[in-house]
């Protein structure tokens, strides 16, 4: 997955997040479902941003960005903000 693919996925996930919040606001989605789906979207967003940062760091320091490896959601979500 290259940087453009990751950025496209981030854009799609942000769009999905906005739609979920909109559906919740208009009453077409219950709170429990929204919470569950938002958690999944946010976890994947965190993974995408982490992978993009890894790729950029490798490139900035002369490494191969294709050696960056996606980390699990549990690892990425445990990072300090």
TrEMBL record:
Stored InterPro entries: Uncharacterised_Rv0898c
Residue numbers spanned by region Disordered: 60-81
Top-level taxonomic group: Bacteria
Protein name (database record): DUF2630 domain-containing protein
The species this protein was found in: Streptosporangium subroseum
Organism taxonomic ancestry: Bacteria, Bacillati, Actinomycetota, Actinomycetes, Streptosporangiales
